[in-house]
Amino acid sequence: MNRKIIHCDADCFYAAIEMRDNPALRELPLAVGGRSDRRGVIATCNYLARSFGVRSAMATATAKRLCPDLRVVAPDMAKYRAASVTMRETFLKFTELIEPLSLDEAYLDVTDSPFGGGSATKIAQQIRADIVESLGITVSAGVSNTKFMAKIASDWNKPNGLCVIPPDQVDQFLLSLPVNKIHGVGKVTAAKLNQMGIHTCAELRLRTPEELQITFGKFGPRLFELAHGIDPRPVTVSRQRKSISTENTFSSDLIGIEQCLAQLESLMTNLQRRLDTLPSDAKYKNAFVKVKFSDFSTTTLERAGTTPSLVVFQQLLIDAIARKPLPVRLLGVGVRLHTALSCDGDSQLELFPESTISGLP
Ligand code: TTP
Q1: Across-strand partners of 140?
Q2: Is the pLDDT reported for residue 111 higher than 80?
């Protein structure tokens, strides 16, 4: 399959919009997020703030400790949504095969696009230039023959970068690629791979899919394929979504309800981030929690007709945990949608669910 895929990802998206609207912020370490005196969390920050160690999902109070001059502004989702629409309009000039992953990120299949004289690289350059002009923010792009490689490429020269990995260079590129650059390989999976003596894709290739399956479950054979640059996933224009959820596998099992409840806030922050990308008239039906115990058994519990709130999830979690007196390896929270939305979902997050942060089955 000789596809031409572009992965576009805006640079420090929310922060970039805020800097565009208030250029004085450009010179400052800037974060977008909740206030430190309200136990807020950083959604994103500009690259100057990153040089102090500030990161997405960090408590704002921690970020302020790392960078006392950090300026924190509240998110303005309406503005980011509007910018996202403009980005989409730009993509549409080049192809209709667009798969958004979030407000600021999308895959484009330009295999048959008549633009750029057949050059995906030229299209990517043009998209980047057009978005600077129309939106006043920069977008990094990666070009390759699979979604997997295009996404790695867009990150390679961030911010404001373009990276092209032609099909005949994929193999060479992958050989030295550290395994933690594979999407879905988080800290825990990376540590396990490293313990097995696997640091690069070249080393990953020396294992069999069966061997990897023993340690990483379904993700094992997938890791093997990715290490060979095999990723047949097409760019999917739209999908029916019935639920939105987020989950986390913990590097060490949680013991007792207190430890589990303590995880709810950050899970809910992630969930909210995904809910923010839904159309504003999306309606929720049920709230649910998912618990995977140390014996790998999974239970889910949901409640009808509720809006997702901390109290609802707390109660669901207490009831779900009570089902087995075992330590907990994974927790998830989510909502079912009232009608299946044909929406621009996070297909890649579903293929690599957040549980694969640790890559465990
Ligand atoms: P990302 O594309 O992950 O990151 P980014 O655009 O801020 O920065 P980068 O240059 O590294 O790509 O996220 C897109 C937006 O989603 C981000 O601007 C803010 C929001 N977001 C959150 O609200 N919480 C999070 O934990 C993350 C990672 C992002």
Answers
A1: 9
A2: yes
